[in-house]
Amino acid sequence: MKNTYFNPWHNVSRGDNNPQVVQSIIEIPKGSKGKYELDKDSGLLKLDRVLFSAVHYPAAYGFIPQTYCDDNDPLDILVLCSVDIVPMCIVEAKVIGVMQMVDQDEEDDKIIAVAAHDISVNHYNDISDLPPHTLLEMRRFFEDYKALEHNKHVVVERFMGKEDAYRIINDSIKLYDETFGQLQAIK
């Protein structure tokens, strides 16, 4: 019998309207101190670690399916939403920008989006529409959350608008297709 299984990274569609609107798979709910991530082999969610710092995730955090980046992971995404989003939930997300950061001397972009079907946030069309405190909170979280973990160093280089985010998403789709081929996704 052939061993086949469902893996959210490879078997969920990235969405028909990408890069403007993407499907995202949430790994970590807003407010969590647990760092959950997709186990690439099994497709299950695993607890990677509990954050050492007195911080918590400023937005729902996950990835865009069928994308691939130089860090050997799918492209990360932060999704702003007025309700808590449970892990492994698929969320249609409107892309509004990107946070470019360097984690341990490796580029690690984070797409910033809003839940497309949440009227409390879906009126935001670009990262420049967000309250300044929201971006400051994201910056502080990502620069601080690894500081107590064996002196790991993260630097948020800059926030950029949706056009730059679209380019980064398209690049990650191209790299995914070159690396894994075009797989059949469930829509």
UniProtKB/TrEMBL annotation:
<feature type="binding site">
    <location>
        <position position="49"/>
    </location>
    <ligand>
        <name>substrate</name>
    </ligand>
</feature>
<keyword id="KW-0963">Cytoplasm</keyword>
<feature type="binding site">
    <location>
        <position position="61"/>
    </location>
    <ligand>
        <name>substrate</name>
    </ligand>
</feature>
<feature type="binding site">
    <location>
        <position position="108"/>
    </location>
    <ligand>
        <name>Mg(2+) 1</name>
    </ligand>
</feature>
<dbReference type="InterPro" id="IPR008162">
    <property type="entry name" value="Pyrophosphatase"/>
</dbReference>
<comment type="subunit">
    <text>Homohexamer.</text>
</comment>
<comment type="function">
    <text>Catalyzes the hydrolysis of inorganic pyrophosphate (PPi) forming two phosphate ions.</text>
</comment>
<keyword id="KW-0479">Metal-binding</keyword>
<protein>
    <recommendedName>
        <fullName>Inorganic pyrophosphatase</fullName>
        <ecNumber>3.6.1.1</ecNumber>
    </recommendedName>
</protein>
<dbReference type="GO" id="GO:0000287">
    <property type="term" value="F:magnesium ion binding"/>
</dbReference>
<dbReference type="InterPro" id="IPR036649">
    <property type="entry name" value="Pyrophosphatase_sf"/>
</dbReference>
<feature type="binding site">
    <location>
        <position position="145"/>
    </location>
    <ligand>
        <name>substrate</name>
    </ligand>
</feature>
<keyword id="KW-0378">Hydrolase</keyword>
<feature type="binding site">
    <location>
        <position position="76"/>
    </location>
    <ligand>
        <name>Mg(2+) 1</name>
    </ligand>
</feature>
<keyword id="KW-0460">Magnesium</keyword>
<dbReference type="GO" id="GO:0005737">
    <property type="term" value="C:cytoplasm"/>
</dbReference>
<dbReference type="Pfam" id="PF00719">
    <property type="entry name" value="Pyrophosphatase"/>
</dbReference>
<feature type="binding site">
    <location>
        <position position="76"/>
    </location>
    <ligand>
        <name>Mg(2+) 2</name>
    </ligand>
</feature>
<dbReference type="GO" id="GO:0004427">
    <property type="term" value="F:inorganic diphosphate phosphatase activity"/>
</dbReference>
<feature type="binding site">
    <location>
        <position position="35"/>
    </location>
    <ligand>
        <name>substrate</name>
    </ligand>
</feature>
<comment type="similarity">
    <text>Belongs to the PPase family.</text>
</comment>
<dbReference type="GO" id="GO:0006796">
    <property type="term" value="P:phosphate-containing compound metabolic process"/>
</dbReference>
<feature type="binding site">
    <location>
        <position position="71"/>
    </location>
    <ligand>
        <name>Mg(2+) 1</name>
    </ligand>
</feature>
